[in-house]
Design brief:
Strands 7, 8, 9, 10, 11, 12, 13, 14 and 15 form a 9-stranded mixed sheet that branches. Helix 5 links the parallel strand 7 and strand 8. The chain is built from 8 helices and 15 strands. The chain is α+β, with helices and mostly antiparallel strands. 38% of the residues are buried.
């Protein structure tokens, strides 16, 4: 199932700048019973990206497209791509800019329940994230760093990969955000230089603060991660996975991780 600019279609122009240059943004939206979850957060991040990239977008129209697509999809994952649209050869921005929206639907991933209950193993990726504040926080179409990182392991017992930046700071996982717990404080890495400000990350921080849990967004070193009391990863499709092992370091599934899982239980069911 796929729509282009709100209409059923199965392809886009070969001149699309998203294809040629990665000139655009995307959002991956969980849909349950025809309803897109965390849609306001997805659209807020997309709007920030449009402002930074100078891509015009009619968000009232886009919201209506997503709602209609989600209703038709029922249950699954709606991937929204917003490209700058067509352009000729060269980096100069096309005038006028006629952005293109692409919506594709797929089934919800069937992650093992053990990931949420017992925790997962992380792989320490050698691929580093480049520091580029102009792109930081956004889900832009340039995902080659994640492609290279995901190619580093084939072991099915490893669920995710840890990614650091070129200065060695812990930033995120390949397709998730990462949190640590130390002395009762919930910490997550800053994404001001690189990385994605995930919608589940934002939702977790807000719900944790409302619940009176101390939170902090800051630079986190690998030593800080390895010395944490609890570690977990999260995204908007699966919710929270406790991390039980990274290299020689092991962690229990901690009480704060369990509490946070309960706080977002209404957003993390795979069924």
């Amino acid at each position: 199932m796929s729509w282009v600019n709100g209409q059923p279609a199965d392809g886009v122009s070969v001149h699309d700048r998203g294809l040629a240059y990665g000139d655009g943004l995307f959002e991956t939206i969980k849909v349950v019973d025809g309803q897109p979850e965390l849609l306001d957060r997805h659209l807020h991040r997309l709007e920030l990206g449009c402002q930074r990239f100078a891509i015009p977008c009619e968000f009232i129209t886009l919201r209506a497209q997503i709602a209609a697509f989600s209703a038709a999809l029922g249950d699954g994952v709606a991937k929204l791509i917003l490209s700058r649209g067509d352009g000729m050869r060269g980096y100069r921005l096309p005038q006028p800019c006629l952005p293109r929206t692409v919506l594709t639907g797929s089934p919800l991933p069937n992650y093992p329940i053990e990931h949420s209950e017992d925790g997962v193993r992380l792989f320490a990726c050698t691929t580093r994230l480049a520091e580029q504040p102009a792109l930081a926080g956004l889900k832009h179409l340039n995902r080659l760093e994640q492609v290279l990182a995901r190619a580093e392991w084939q072991d099915p017992a490893v669920a995710e990969g840890l990614m650091r930046d070129t200065s060695g700071r812990v930033i995120e996982a390949v397709f998730s955000n990462i949190f640590i717990v130390k002395s009762g404080v919930l910490l997550t890495p800053s994404v001001e230089r690189c990385g994605v400000a995930g919608v589940m990350r934002g939702e977790l921080l807000e719900r944790a603060r409302r619940a009176g849990i101390p939170t902090q967004v800051a630079d986190i070193s690998l030593d800080q991660l390895l010395g944490a009391d609890e570690v977990f990863v999260c995204n908007s499709l699966y919710g929270i996975w406790p991390v039980r092992q990274l290299q020689a370091s092991v962690w229990p599934v901690g009480s704060l991780t369990r509490k946070l899982q309960s706080l977002v239980a209404d957003l993390s069911s795979n069924t």
